Amino acid sequence: MNLQLEAQEDVLAHLKQRLAHCRETFETANQIITLSAKIETLKSNHDDLKNLDSDNLQDHLTMLANKQRDIERLEWRDRNASCENKLTLPFGKHKDHCVEAVWEHDPGYIVWLAGFRPALNGSRPETHSNNANFPSNVKQLAKSLIRGTCYSCHDELDTDEAWKTFCSSCYKELKMK
Ligand SMILES: [Zn+2]
Questions:
Q1: Which of 83, 159, 162, 166 could be 171's S-S partner, Cβ–Cβ 3.0 to 4.6 Å?
Q2: How far is the CA of 26 from the centre of ligand 1 (A)?
Q3: How far is the CA of 86 from the centre of ligand 1 (A)?
Q4: Does position 135 have pLDDT exceeding 60, yes or no?
Q5: 151 alpha carbon to ligand 1 midpoint, in Å?
Q6: Average pLDDT of the residues in 70-91
Q7: 107-139 per-residue burial string, b: 16 or more CB within 10 A, e: under 16
Q8: Are 172 and 103 within one domain?
Q9: Is 88 contained in some domain?
Q10: Is the residue at 35 inside a domain?
Q11: Which of 110-119, 143-152, 159-168 has the lowest mean pLDDT?
């Protein structure tokens, strides 16, 4: 009698476990169904986007890019015009731009032209030799422009001693890297 009861309880426990497992499976299945529906929605939205007049969109983007380039060209024309030193760059992303104007609008590039990176090598700024073939008057001007400024944030330093190349906060920050 007792044995039979125990056996029955075992079966019951087993069935309960199976039931719990079934519930889990059922929930997972439900989640999968919900997610599939979401994916389908996303897919059809994407198809809608694809069906947007893509040629038109492309033309529009090209036009915007051209306008942007025209505006930049005009801006640089003004910047070049207001430079005292008319030395321009013969190469690179700032081709035909005055070195002085580049210093004002993209100072990191001038630091790089001068042969430095905004990083430390010991306690000195890291150098590179990618500028080996740059015209020497460009390098000279770049060096004189960055003198007395921080090679990293380009703020003016309180001294124009040649050894001083980073402000104290940039120096601290670079030292930690
Ligand atoms: Zn700095």
A1: 166
A2: 61
A3: 28
A4: yes
A5: 7
A6: 95
A7: bebbbbbbbbbbebeeeebeeeeebeebeeebb
A8: yes
A9: no
A10: yes
A11: 159-168
